[in-house]
Model the fold of this input.
Amino acid sequence: MKKVLSGSEHLHPEQVEQMMDDMENDWQDLTFRFCPGGSVTIIDNHTNQRVSPRDLSGAVLDFYIRKRIEFIRVSLEEKILQYA
Done:
């Protein structure tokens, strides 16, 4: 969220905060770092603490799963091309 805010030309931080507050769902401000070896680091931007994938739920878990599948697919495609 913080990175999105700093790069946004159209929304001010107050506008984003208001939009998030208006949404009745709980939301988390997390940073995902997917490493080339397949590992992932998830940081809670409010506490600067690491988060385990086991602790994810809802939309955050959906995002993680989709990105993880995308990473695996791209990795397999690269290996197929490398050994073709």
